[in-house]
C-alpha cells in the first residue's frame, strides 16, 4: 500500500474524481494524507457504542451496514464512519477452506481510504468498480474487496 505505484495511482484517482460534492466536507488530496487521517478499528457485534468510542447513532449505522450486507459473498468488509474505519471480522478471512471467501485486507483498506478522503456513500459503486485497479496497483492480491 505504501509503494510508489500505489501512491501515484491513488493520488491520480483522487485528482480524476475531483470535488466529492459532499456539501463542503474537506477531503484529503493524497494517499499519505488519508492514511494519516484514518483510525483503523476491528468491529465486533458485541461492542457497545461506549466501547467503540462513538455515539449510539454512529454505532447503529455501523452495525446496520454490517448486518444488512451479511452474506458469505456480499459482506460489508469494512465501514467508514467519521474518519474511523471499522474492519469487519470477515475482512480478515484468508486461506480459508473455501478460497472464494478469501479477503484482500490491503485492498479493503485502500477502498475505505477513498471514503476517508471524502468520497462518501454516493461514490460507493464507483469506488467498488476500482477493485481490480486497487489489486493491480496496491495490494497485488486476489481476494474479495
Commentary on this structure:
With 145 residues, the chain is mainly α. The chain has one domain. Helix content is 43%, strand content 8%. The chain has 7 helices and 3 strands. The chain has helices at 4-17, 31-37, 49-52, 56-67, 105-116, 124-128, 131-139; strands at residues 39-42, 78-81, 84-87. Strands 1-3-2 form a 3-stranded mixed beta sheet, sandwiched between helices. Helix 1 packs antiparallel against helix 7 and helix 5 packs across helix 7. The model has no long low-confidence stretch (mean pLDDT 85).
Structure characteristics:
mainly alpha; 7 helices; 8% strand; 3-stranded mixed sheet; globular; 145 residues
- Along the chain, the helix and strand elements come as HHEHHEEHHH
Rg over CA atoms, rounded to whole Å, is 15 Å
Shape label:
globular
- What portion of residues belong to β-strands? 5-15%
What's the structural domain tally? 1
Approximately how much helix is present in the residues? 40-55%
What is the SS-derived class? Answer: mainly alpha
Q: Please mark out the parts with pLDDT under 50 across 5 or more consecutive residues, or reply none.
A: none
Regarding quaternary structure, how should these chains be classified? single chain
User: In total, how many beta strands?
Assistant: 3
Span between N and C termini?
14 Å
Amino acid at each position: 500500500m505504501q509503494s510508489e505505484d500505489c501512491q501515484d495511482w491513488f493520488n491520480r484517482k483522487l485528482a480524476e474524481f475531483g470535488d466529492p460534492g459532499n456539501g463542503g466536507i474537506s477531503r484529503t488530496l493524497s494517499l499519505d494524507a488519508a492514511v494519516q487521517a484514518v483510525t483503523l478499528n476491528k468491529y465486533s457485534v458485541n461492542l457497545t457504542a461506549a466501547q467503540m468510542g462513538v455515539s449510539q447513532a454512529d454505532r447503529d449505522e455501523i452495525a446496520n451496514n454490517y448486518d444488512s450486507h451479511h452474506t458469505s459473498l456480499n459482506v460489508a468488509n469494512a465501514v467508514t464512519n467519521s474518519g474511523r474505519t471499522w474492519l469487519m471480522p470477515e475482512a480478515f478471512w484468508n486461506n480459508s477452506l473455501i478460497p472464494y471467501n478469501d479477503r484482500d485486507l490491503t485492498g479493503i483498506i485502500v477502498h475505505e481510504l477513498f471514503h476517508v478522503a471524502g468520497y462518501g456513500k454516493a461514490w460507493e459503486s464507483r469506488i467498488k468498480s476500482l477493485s481490480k485497479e486497487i489489486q493491480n496497483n496496491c495490494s497485488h492480491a486476489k481476494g474479495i474487496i
